[in-house]
Amino acid sequence: MKRADCIVMTRADDPQRAEELRREIATQAHATPIFSSRMRLNAMRRVQSKFAQSLIDPQEIRASRIAAFCGLGNPESFFSLLRRSGYELAHTQIFRDHHRYTQSDIDGIVRESVARGAQILMTTAKDEVKLRSLKFELPCYAADIAIEIDDAEQLKDLITEAATVRV
Question: Domain total for the chain?
């Protein structure tokens, strides 16, 4: 850490925990700039199915009960992001990372989601590309996620300076 030009803490969603971690890192990194980042929902994209594909503002479906599913290495990160963004998760379903979805998988998700009162399915953009040829009996959206970095301009300046000096 002492040799780093900067340090970026990811998933710094809890301000208190992020500040504790920042202080701990600072004891090792001394004067190295430390930045915090977090994930945020940028938009929702309707997964291609019998419904037309379109972008919507995430606020438009916030009042609906959601069933979320994904095949990620850290699925709880996705579910936590949805909860922090104000969505009520009626059901969550985890698949192994890089899962290849079948119609049977989707039918099972829909059955369980409806049984738990969900009106909408939500998944990740990573999973969405594997779902385009499948049929959904509930509207299904893929979450477009953006990274929000505190002091992003300062980080950009550091990167530009480092790239310029070393080229």
Answer: 2
